[in-house]
Design a protein that fits this description.
Layout lengths: L19 H16 L6 H28 L4 H5 L4 E5 H5 L8 E7 L5 H13 L4 E7 L6 E6 L2 E9 L22 H18 L4 H17 L12 H14 L5 H13 L28 H4 L21 H22 L20 E9 L2 H23 L4 E6 L4 E7 L2 H8 L37 H4 L11 E14 L12 E2 L1 H12 L10 E9 L19 H25 L1 H10 L6 H20 L1 E3 L2 E5 L5 E3 L4 E2 L21
Parallel strand pairs: 2-5, 10-15
Antiparallel strand pairs: 1-2, 3-4, 4-5, 6-9, 6-11, 7-9, 8-9, 12-13, 13-14
Helix pairs in contact: 2-5, 6-8, 7-8, 7-9, 8-9, 9-11, 12-15, 17-18
């Protein structure tokens, strides 16, 4: 069978060349990206090359030292070699200023993975140029994270079953996968996939410009993060590469425009493929939804082109799928105007307003005393948030749960046990410019909450965050914190007779906390803490808005609801006016010579009208929270949401109580 003359699993949609206008739009796109600072400078480029050269020498030194440990003659030890490969955005040629470099270190068979982590970490610690060194050997793909001369490096290792690694080694040959373990396959495949993508696009320069555009758009719209359930860099690259295959002769501007239109209408879970899936020798399993239940569960599958083919988007949840769809739909509306010259390119890259989108948020706080330990805890919690989202989705309470792709990091030097306790419980001090009054929560720090103890009704938060009354000197000192957010879009439901709505989030929250504490990353409650808080949008800390307005965005649906409420209030006002005439009518009826029950009916009606008026004057939060009366005072609502997380003492005012139902 003759090979197809096109790239991809289907023929192109169009082979037309770009028009002059489309070329001009591509030039405008390039200039806009330059203005946005997505290209690195010459000095930075040279520094990266120097850093990679030093790392290559370090890899060879590790191989040499391990060879000597294994009693190999020095002459042979020097010949064992070792080589580095880059992958990800750097290898694709679309990295920006300040971006990290994904680096694969390939070593021969006598270097075990444990040896590599031990020897490489030791060598890196001796280098004055190396900072923020963190080894994560138990990750899905074991990695060493570091900063080398100001360049962020993610270093992974692949152990090949051969005695030496020559400098001219290539990884695209499937034979190198023979007899290597699964961890090495995952590591080596990063580079193999990147090289295969470049091989499968018809025009690399067009692909790179279009991909830079889509990467910047995805980052600005906060949908660029594989770890929390969106697309990562490789997934976006393969999506853009597929459009390039469908329009092989087009310019970058048209590729971007068709990207939005095609993926708005894409029939998920139909996979995105750059080439037919290669079954290979059968040594490793490949993505196959016909036989694998886990593969059938993938919401937006994008399949890697190198054997063994895997799904690069297995982390996508139902919620993040909806968020991606909404952003692509927004992209279609803007790109159509850009292509008509009605808008400039910069409108596509407007930043998202995540913290103005939702009425309620979950705030996940983790803290550690050690710097290196906190780096590991931060990465582990971030990688497990998607499980929390998936668990919350099954509760039936939410339309979607939107994870924030950005976390907020802090380092505090605590001066007292009480301050350390509050920070470990997730209540961070106010910024220096706006210090919090003593004994009060920082402005905007959110609602205080409590988990009552089932036995005596007292605050049980000390089980997670420590008891302020019995705090020891070990509570003082430096504390590192990371804060993650989940935006909540609730399903509309009828309120109860008391105007409250109950949600029990205890099971998914307990399961999430258990996942964190059962891991090897967790060093005990004395060294680490985790807390989860339920916040209204207006209770979010100032730092998340970064100078933007705190006013919540109004959607078209909420605007319609406001009109309905206004109309209802008008109707109720007319009813009130009619009700005000009831006493006069009642007096006339009472004066009538014929006995009547209308007086009793008027009494009942009067009470009902009073209750209705009270209901109109009382605005109760959808999730409990504070109840605001007509005169502007506040009244704490009853406990309505259940989250058994480590939290500090109950709020004295304005708090949303998180109560464990049934306790």
């Amino acid at each position: 069978m003759s090979k197809p003359k096109h790239l991809g699993v289907t023929p192109p949609i169009s082979t037309n060349a770009p028009s002059e206008e489309e070329e001009a739009l591509s030039t405008d796109l390039l200039n806009t990206l330059k203005d946005e600072g997505v290209f690195e400078g010459e000095d930075e480029r040279k520094n990266r090359e120097v850093v990679l050269g030093k790392i290559d020498k370090l890899v060879k030194e590790v191989v040499y030292q391990v060879a000597l440990k294994n009693k190999l003659p020095e002459s042979l030890a020097r010949e064992c070699g070792g080589k580095i490969f880059t992958y990800g955005s750097y290898r694709l040629g679309v990295h920006g200023a300040g971006a990290d470099i994904d680096t694969l270190c390939v070593v021969p068979s006598h270097v075990k993975r444990e040896d590599f982590f031990e020897y490489m970490t030791a060598l890196l610690k001796e280098r004055s140029e190396v900072t923020e060194l963190t080894a994560v050997p138990d990750a899905y793909v074991p990695v060493i994270k570091l900063q080398f001369s100001g360049v962020d490096i993610d270093m992974i290792v692949g152990v090949l079953q051969q005695p030496t690694i020559p400098d001219d080694l290539e990884l695209l040959d499937d034979k190198i996968l023979r007899s290597i373990d699964e961890l090495s396959v995952r590591s080596v495949n990063g580079s193999r996939v990147t090289d295969e993508i470049l091989r499968l696009v018809p025009n690399v320069s067009t692909f790179r410009l279009a991909l830079r555009c889509i990467k910047l758009w995805a980052k600005r719209r906060a949908i660029y993060s594989n770890s929390v359930g969106f697309f990562g860099g490789v997934a976006w690259a393969m999506a853009v590469a597929r459009i390039c295959q469908l329009y092989p002769n087009q310019s970058a501007s048209t590729i971007v425009a068709r990207f939005f239109h095609i993926f708005l209408r894409w029939n998920w879970p139909m996979p995105i493929l750059l080439k037919p899936i290669d079954e290979g020798s059968g040594q490793f399993g490949v993505w196959n939804p016909k036989f694998n239940q886990s593969d059938r569960n993938h919401k937006m599958p994008i399949i890697t082109p190198a054997y063994p083919s895997m799904c690069a988007t297995h982390n996508v949840s139902q919620s993040t799928k909806q968020v991606i769809y909404v952003e692509i739909k927004r992209g279609v509306q803007i790109i159509d105007k850009i292509m008509k010259r009605e808008l400039p390119w910069k409108h596509l890259f407007e930043k998202d307003e995540y913290f103005r989108q939702y009425k309620f948020y979950l705030q996940v706080n983790v803290s550690s005393r050690g710097d290196e330990e906190h780096h590991r805890l931060h990465g582990f919690v971030e990688s497990r948030l998607r499980f929390y989202v998936a668990s919350l989705e099954t509760s039936g309470q939410f339309v979607l749960i939107h994870p924030c792709t950005k976390s907020f990091e802090h380092e505090f030097a605590c001066k007292s046990d009480e301050e350390a306790q509050r920070i470990r419980a997730g209540f961070l001090p106010a910024e220096p410019s706006t210090p919090a009054p003593e004994g009060e929560a920082a402005p905007g720090s959110g609602a205080e909450a409590t988990v009552p103890d089932a036995a005596n009704g007292q605050d049980a938060s000390s089980a997670e965050a420590g008891d302020p009354a019995t705090g020891s000197d070990s509570d003082k000192g430096k504390i590192h914190t990371s804060t993650f957010y989940l935006g909540l879009h609730l399903i509309k439901r009828e309120r109860s007779a008391t105007g409250e709505r109950r949600m029990d989030l205890s099971l998914p929250t307990q399961d999430f906390i258990r996942r964190i504490k059962d891991s090897d990353v967790w060093k005990g409650d004395d060294e680490m803490a985790i807390s989860i808080r339920f916040l209204r949008q207006e209770q979010l800390p100032d730092e998340v808005f970064a100078g933007m307005s705190r006013e919540r965005l109004r959607t078209s649906s909420s605007t319609r609801q406001d009109k309905k409420k206004s109309k209802k209030r008008s109707t109720q006002g007319a009813d009130d006016a009619a009700a005000s005439e009831a006493p006069a009518k009642k007096a006339k009826l009472a004066a009538a010579p014929v006995p009547s029950t209308s007086g009793f009916a008027a009494d009942a009606g009067s009470k009902q009208a009073s209750d209705e008026a009270a209901g109109r004057n009382m605005v109760t939060s959808a999730e409990g929270g504070s109840s605001a009366t007509a005169n502007g005072s506040t009244k704490p609502a009853t406990s309505v949401v259940s989250i058994p997380a480590p939290v500090p003492p109950m709020a004295k005012s304005g708090g949303i109580k998180l109560k464990l139902l049934g306790s």
